[in-house]
Amino acid sequence: MKKVLLLSLLLASVAFAVPKMQLPEETFDFGYVPQSSKVTHTFWIKSVGDETLNILNVKPGCGCTKAPLKSDKIVAGDSTELEIIYSTGMHVGQSTKRPTITTNEGPPDRRVTIKANAVREPDSTYPVIISPYKLMVSKAGEIDVDEVDFSITNVSDQALDLSLVSIPAGYFSTELPTSIPAGQSARCKLKVKPDHLDETFEKSLTLQFNDPGKSRFTIPIVRRLIGATAQATTATQAIQTSGGK
Question: What DSSP string runs through 127-168?
């Protein structure tokens, strides 16, 4: 009788074991982004059911959005990264994209949402101006630019606190102020960590300020590896040229 009861309980637990997906974050707002650039944000997908969660398909939604997935099988209790890459192209103004995730949990499909406000002249934004508005950390020949300085100018009439709300894990170290007085500029620094010096990539970081609109600004970061045998002068020109595109 005990064996029958144990077998029944085992079969019941198997029958009710199901995969289940959880998205701790479903929406991300890049805020202001420069035209003709790529920006990225990583969403986490958690497997919170009793069975392995299989990611069957991720539809970016349009050609301007990509959604590479780190793993398509997530055992119960584990998680994986879904990186959303948005290319602003020549678009100007607000845009919303909603990549779709299909899993073996079954319908309905789930979505994550990204928002961005592409600007043609990022040197005239409010309440801050970031310069340069695109960070180049490239290598050409013997010249390796693995760190870069940039400034944030507070063009409002109040002091602004800032926080870093999105940055790719493990890629960069940063030096950022916690507050910028009204009408003043602050120097900032970004450095590529050693594990990623041999990579070509396009990433970004997103800052949020405490003005009434909780303004966000996303800064594209580009690393290119250009001709290891290039002469010093040519290498410098190559980095400068790639920074203007």
Answer: SEEEESSSEE--EETTEE--EEEEEEEE-SSS-EEEEEEE--
DSSP designation for 75: -
By the 8 A CB rule, do 45 and 21 touch? Answer: yes
CB atoms under 10 Å from CB of 241, counted, come to: 11
Q: How far is CA 42 from CA 20, 163, 170, 230, in A?
A: 20, 17, 13, 35
Contact 41, 206 (CB under 8 A): yes
Cα separation, 43 vs 109, in Å, equals 16
**Residue located via tokens 């309440």:** 127
pLDDT of residue 202: 96
Q: What is the pLDDT of residues 198-239, one digit of tens each?
A: 999 999 999 999 999 999 999 999 999 987 543 333 344 444
Strand partners, 117: 32, 94
d(CA 82, CA 56): 13
CB 43 within 8 A of CB 82: yes
Query: What parts of the chain have a pLDDT lower than 50?
Result: 4-7, 9-14, 229-245
